[in-house]
Amino acid sequence: MARGKRPSGRRRKLQRGFAVLALLVVAIVVVAVLDHRVTAQFEGRRWTLPARVYAQSIDLYVGQQLSAERLADELERLGYLAVANPDRPGTYRRRGDQLRVYVREFRFPDERQEARPLKLSFAGDMVTGLEDATGAEVAIVRLDPLLIGSIFPMHGEDRIVVSPSEVPPLLPEALKAVEDRKFDSHHGVNPLAILRALFVNVRAGQIEQGGSTLTQQLVKSYFLDSRRTLRRKAEEAVMAVILEARYEKADIMNAYINEIYLGQDGRRAVHGFGLGSQFYFGKPLAELDLPEIALMVAVIRGPSYYDPRRQPERALERRNLVLRVLAEQGVVSTEDAERAMKKPLGIAEAGRKGGGFYPAFLDLVRRQLREDYEEADLTESGLTVFSTLDPLLQGAAEAALAGEMDRLDRSARKEAHGLEGVVVVTTPQTGEVVALIGGRRAGYDGFNRALDAQRPIGSLAKPIVYLAALETGRYTPATLVADEPVDLKLPNGDRWKPQNFDKQVRGQVTLVRGLTQSLNLATVNLGLDVGLGRVSQAFEQLGLPEAPSELPSMLLGATNLSPMDVAQVYNTIANGGFRAPLRAVRAVIDETGQPLKAPQLEVSEAVSPEAVHALGRMMVEVMERGTGRAAKKQLPAGLVVAGKTGTSNDYRDSWFAGFSGSHLIVSWVGHDDNRPTGLTGTTGGLAVWSRLMGSIPTTSFEPLLPDSLDLRWIDYFSGRETSPYCNGSAVSMAFAHGTRLEPSEACPPGAESPGADSPAADEVGAGKLGEAAEVDSAAAEPEVP
Amino acid sequence: MFRLVALAALLAVSACSVAPFQKERPAPAAPTGSTGSAKAGEGPVLKTPTDEIFQPDAEAVIETPPPVVELPRERPRRPPAKLAPASRALVAQAEAQRKKGDLPGASVSLDRALRIEPNNPLLWIEMGRLRMDQRNYPQAENMARKALSMSVGDDATQSAAWELIGQSLKARGRNTEAEEAFGKARAAAPR
Fold this sequence. Notes:
heterodimer; A: alpha+beta; Penicillin-binding protein 1b fold; Penicillin binding protein transpeptidase fold; 4 domains; 5-stranded mixed beta sheet; 32 strands; 18% strand; B: mainly alpha; Serine Threonine Protein Phosphatase 5, Tetratricopeptide repeat; 56% helix
């Protein structure tokens, strides 16, 4: 036994030696692996930055239509602070019609605009003076734009990286005081703190030093893993020591500030204080004051437990604890801490919480960028995207849709409850999408109806039929077409017998009347005469990616289109026949400020400007006396607009597409499951449209008359040339030079009898004034083959 | 954005004598009795919850005699288009950027100007000149054509637009058409 012990003891020693060696090797390998992983993360983090998307920036200039009050609102939205003396960036002061603002520095796509103080004076709704600190006049200056979101990758992390110079000095001090008092001296782990964390019972509501150093928390955040095993803890500790050995304290602190998880916004995880500041306060990190910094530090421990929006009391209590600790540790004076404790949380309302609130629009931006960029470029390489979104218009569009949907929810009609809606707003001349709502819950990141819902457009097809007719040169607005029964045998053998909304027939009607009253039979007869091929081609010329099938039911809008498709088609009409591809992006720059590829403003003459002009005047009549005239009550007096209602079979879709001189709005209302809504284009889509058009500053639709056209008065019913002074149904329409028009007998052109006491008696007949109701084409029920 | 558009449009309208779409009724044209009653009996869309849906609203009745304006008998002439001070500053900035070869920067400046005055033909001509620099000749022509459509009756602007069309055609080797365009530019040029 004893004999055998010695050699075995030696062997054991040897074995022990081997074991130690093996362990050492394993340890070296493990450390090397961990070293590789953690340094790769630390270094690589700088390169995974989601593209930041900004709304359009507000230009300030003399002569601008903008009140001091509106500008103050805009500044609040941008997180500017109202102060007595605006002496630092991000502050302003308004005194009646005088406004002083210290505009923030911002890197625009063409240049960096330095922070500068400005003085503005107003007279009513107009900017009358704009000067800098020295009193010198400034021609035009940009406000920093609103951050509306980021294109973050599927795992959902989003952040705005800040450099140390953008970090208020108080923040690192506060972090150290609350989370890691030995940060400046330890080597990544703090054994004492770990021991204390093990033994000290952390009582609720009392701030105790956690076991983890800031470095350990950083490592933990890099390798987000919910498992709380001892092995993970050990790995984290080793990686923390490695980081400390390799990098400066300042770099680690900066990494922490950009890395730590601070809250959740739907699918998006808010990381880092840069985005956290936008998310909670709607302003840059550098502008945060003591209570705001204290709140962010407070939130670190449990972003959902201390969520300032959902758990305001809890968050407030913990913020004040943080403030007390800061005073105890001498980071701030007791007086400052006490003053800060009296402040409210100051959380920004949802509308300006640093983006993530315009999912439908951001989706469009992302899709347009995908034409030129790889997904990884967008989610990782720190691009800055300047979009076309106008937050003010977007807000107005959201309010208009929500208001109308709520009203319908309360209406007696069950079918109209729980509807969905879409709104697209563009500026016709430049084709910029300035607002986009993909569903009733505008902030909800779900099915993007504006882009992906394909719905029959109903009578929205009619203007295109009339445009195709005018383009042939064989028709004028005064030409008569037959509003008479149609009975077609379709290629598949089915019969197609569309009807007018009111099941009436009217005989011969003018083109302008056919469109104004949305007469199905007149439109079908016209379209068949013009040719389905020409109508289909007109759709394509106006901007559809492909021409719709040449079926007769196309004339009454059996074609399925998305609201964005409709917006493209109508934008070309609103733009005088010039097609401008709709775009949501104006410029893209890389991390260094270099401009990159972005969709540019383009226009091309798509259809005859003369035909579009004549059509535009007919579409104005729709709003004056036709299916769109209910809008008038909601619009400012004298505002000229043009548009068209659309309703699909059985009232499943309620559309309106129309424009002023500076805005095109397309609205759609319907059910996702395609149930009937009980709404015509007039009651659903038009109601949303007119609420919105009536609530935004816009201009009249008044295109210049092309040289080759003349304006002439015709009788709305007979199409005969007449005088407005004795004919109550005279409308002024555009005609090519030398167009022959039959003169009216009772009230010929040139008749000047202002004040005449009887209306024209011939063609019109007063009896027709009370003509039966006609709404939209819906009831026609084109049997789609 | 749209803030100055209103102002710009106002200026544009006051500068031109083309009959606007909005028809204003001269005082003497008295409405007839029948139309007055038609108006009173009509059912609007958004009145009460019961009549808001399925209410056939859109009778195309002539509610009131149409407002009357005299249609112009002669083609109106208009004074040359002008830039508002803010867009003038931006055009100057774009010019400076183009000289430095910073074409994307110039594009940003002109985009801003177009947001202020989308209906100013001079800005479309500037945009077309930038497209020439970018060697996007078809778009240069298209911008000029857009300028033509918004400067009817303004000889100076029409001339500048035709000049740009000529340059664009020439750059693409379409010399005959280019000469034709230059001819139109000369013919339109105010003396």
